[in-house]
Write a structure and sequence with these properties.
Layout (H helix, E strand, L loop, with lengths): L2 H24 L11 E5 L4 E6 L2 E7 L21 E9 L7 E4 L4 H10 L8 E3 L22 E2 L2 H10 L5 E5 L1
Length: about 170
């Protein structure tokens, strides 16, 4: 086989493999076009997973609250809560690019706070970066910086925004 014939065959094989791969991908919905039916946040791993029918369809690395990995106990502790919630509203005019509001506090959180004689706090969101600070990008994940929220990049919240409707269950685990 001459070098030219070898090159032609190799080019043809690459073309066929790419065509088959692209065709297979075209028949699969992209992660961004799928709708998530639940959100799982794994605090210790600093991960947010979007799930559809029990399967992870996308994973994001996140920054959490500055108060450490313990569960939120009271207003102002800068901790990210743990428990079962839902996305109950969306805010496209947020101070943090876009934000999905998590329904914290739930009944259990309110009961625990009442027993401790403290306010449970609120305003827990999954959000992007502060407006005008999108250039920070993934570097924001170098340390936990929120007041208890779950932060992703602006591009990531844009993607999550399209995949997570109001009413989507959210579970936040230690």
């Amino acid at each position: 086989m001459t070098p030219i014939t070898h090159t032609i065959r190799l080019s043809w094989m690459v073309f066929v493999v790419c065509t088959i791969t692209l065709s297979a991908q075209a028949n699969q919905p992209s992660a961004a076009t799928q709708k998530a039916d639940s959100v799982l946040i794994l605090k210790k791993d600093h991960l947010l997973e979007l799930l559809a029918e029990g399967k992870v369809i996308h994973t994001y690395h996140v920054a959490l609250g500055t108060g450490g990995l313990e569960p939120k106990q009271k207003e102002g502790d800068a901790r990210t809560p743990e428990g079962h919630y839902i996305i109950d509203t969306r805010n496209s005019e947020s101070h943090y690019h876009k934000a999905l509001h998590v329904s914290y506090p739930n009944a259990e959180d309110r009961k625990r706070a009442a027993q401790a004689g403290v306010a449970p706090g609120g305003a827990i969101m999954i959000h992007g970066l502060p407006n005008g600070k999108g250039y920070i990008g993934a570097a924001h994940r170098l340390y936990d910086w929120t007041l208890g929220c779950v932060a992703v990049t602006d591009a990531e919240i844009d993607e999550i925004w399209t995949m997570v409707p109001v009413g989507t269950p959210v579970e936040i685990r230690p």
